[in-house]
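Feature request, filed as a ticket because there's no other form

It would be nice if the structure record came with a short human-readable summary line next to the tokens. Right now we just get the raw output. Example of a typical job, pasted below so the devs can see what we mean:
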Amino acid sequence: QVPLVESGGGLVQPGGSLRLSCVVSGFTVDDLAIAWFRQAPGKEREGISCIDVDQNPYYADSVKGRFRISRDNRKKTAYLQMNSLKPEDTAVYYCATKTRYCSDYQSSTKFASWGQGTQVIVSS
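Raw output as currently delivered:
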């Protein structure tokens, strides 16, 4: 497994922005696709975005146009820029990795390594 650490969560008002970071420790990220999932209380874990080794981004309909995924391989870090946040975005956000490409990225069973999660609360 690949050690992952998320950060950047917090409390934000509706319409606000946050940027989450996912740092990969001890492994090169060049051969990894990196995805973001979230899990709200009482709901299943949802795959919301993924970026593959060719820097191709993918987004779930629920976040398309509001969130932007990126990666910096030299820093071994992936980012999720979240704009126009809504109360329904409230969840614990996780990053996860799989080999190279984002096929079936919305299925959590495709990912072997996970971070501990970072809480995002969108509330006024």
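Something like this underneath would help us a lot:
The chain is about 0% helix and 50% strand.
Residues 24 and 76 are 5 Å apart (CA to CA).
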